[in-house]
Amino acid sequence: MVTIEDILKKYAGKIESQIESSPSALAQYSAEYTQFKQDMIPEITRYERWAKSLGNIIKLKIAEKDRVKVEKFLAAAHLDVSASQALTLAVISLLSIFFLTIGIVIAIFLINGTTQLLLGTLGLITAVFVFYYTYSMPQRLANIWRLKASSQMVPAILYLVVYMKHTSNLERAIEFASQHLEGPLALDFKKIFYDVEVGRFSTIKQSLDNYLETWQDYAPEFIESFHLIESSLYEPSELRRVQILEKALQVILDGIYEKMLKYSREIRSPLTNVYMLGIILPTLGLALLPLASALLQGLIQWQHVFVIFNILIPFFVFYLTSEVLLKRPGGYGESSVLELNPEYKKFTSKTPWIKASFIAFPLLIIGLLPFLFQIPILNSAFGLKSDYTLGELGFSSDTFKDTKLFDFKTSEEKLFGPFGPLAILLSLFIPLSIALFFSIAYKQKTSALIKSREQTKHLEEEFTNSLFQLGNRLGDGIPAEIAFAKVAESTQGQTTQSFFALVNQNIQQIGMSLELAVFDKRRGAITYFPSSLIATSMRILIESVKKGLQVAARSLMSISDYVKNIQKINQRLRDLLAEVVSDMKSNMAFLAPLLAGIVVGLAAMITLILNKLQTLSILGENTDLGIGISSNILNLFRVEQMIPPYFLQISIGLYIVEVIFILTAALVTVDAGRDPLKEKSDLAKNLRSGIILYTATALASILALTILAAIALGSL
Questions:
Q1: Taking a C-beta distance cutoff of 8 angstroms, is the pair 197, 33 a contact?
Q2: Which pLDDT band holds residue 332 (cuts at 50, 70, 90)?
């Protein structure tokens, strides 16, 4: 007796061959899905590359509780890395810094016989910090991805609501939104469909519910808005259905506003702590380092200062700001995708770096002159001495005519310094060159893009009113092709008039259809007005006109009203954050450089006074002149055991540059979400203003306090 299994086996090969013999339908789907997979896979980051490379060699077991948490972050960040690989990278980073520190300490001991306990301790602390930074990287990457995706939430709900107002079909509305949204959220919406097509879910509803669960803890208002949109499908009354759709948009706007209001209150105290603990206290502590290094008989050296102020404290500031940013709610921020801007090539170009190096490199060489003068080959080639005194340059004061410009000191056949006044002045060029290098490069990269973005925003502000006029013309029964000419006449003197006039010109003179007049790749009006709002509005217009002029009119007027509401919400949110952002900006770009510059002047004055007192003490002993200076006291403050102000100033200057980098990125994220363009543009401004203020303050304080020291020592 023939069973069902026998029949299936008999015809399985035949059915399979028939499917393979007609691949035309499958080929189209396969190409789309292949393209989707390429879009879904993000660019492989260095973190992902290192984690996979090391994780495949060394496999570490991670606790189940930590594994679930880390894999959740990795999935949210769309990283193809396992929790075990992430732990392996963190552990190897820890061990690498640990053994590197031990190797450096042993090498120094073998070279000069000194034990660098402090350097070893700082290296171990650095290793722990690096472990934390690497281990917590998945959480930060997930937060970056969420911030980038959540900035598209309000436009996504807007597109769904506007589309479903005239076509009550959730699947087509999601498809429409996925085609016109930007960034990660568009890919997520496409994945809702492909999860059904590949058989993971049987219905769009199941796939959508599964996707919304990923935002459960991060953006509940987004889920609530989606559920309201779904509920409108079951509402028999047309009026009630439209009200539910409008409520969905209002829910997400209100939810974002309330969360940002709460966030603006919560971040005041943490950002104040960042400024006090990460900027004020370390800078004030720097003023004591010259005396402390002398009192401790050289136990604290400039290498230790560099590790503390240029590695540990910046990492501490970065940690504090990261904790603030991890709590930032989503749904608000810059929503335009940088890659879609026509000027994006300038942002990725390497030419600005080359141009900036031509300005920065000569300044760096000037800062290194004290050491270049110590190279015998260069001195003999140019006929120069390794050092000069002020008297040799024509300085007539008896007190300082023997003061050397660079003042390198030799003790036990070791070279210490430079301690001279000119050396510290030249050292100002090193942080200045580094800051100007990044400032000039970032300005060249972002100036055109920022200008284009500002023009686009100005255009969009005008366009909302023009949309309302266009909707009124369509509501009067005027065909869309003629309505563009009418609106162009009534918007004379505005930026949007050019857009409507160009569409009308393409229709009347070239004979294009409405869609080609707007979206043609060569002559379409949207080519000259690169705005996502304008493009989406025109797409909705073209789609709505198919349903009738009244439907198109209502759609355009709805977009106009909703965009105005969104702009009001964004303005209110910026007002809430304005006080916090402005305070931190003034502290970062004004108070911190000002205070640091004064500290540099104090360090130079202390070094000059102790150096001169030691010289006078030696002179008094040799000539039997009693100048009232106790040699026992001066032995406590041996100049060669002090941290040279040259290196101290470099550490302070680089610290200011690092703080500006960290706080600028933090403030941009607080104010506008994940926005690389605004971050680089603000960095160019803050670095330029901060380093100029720091250099000017340091120069003024060095000169002023040196003159005061000269007057005080003149009586001796």
A1: yes
A2: low
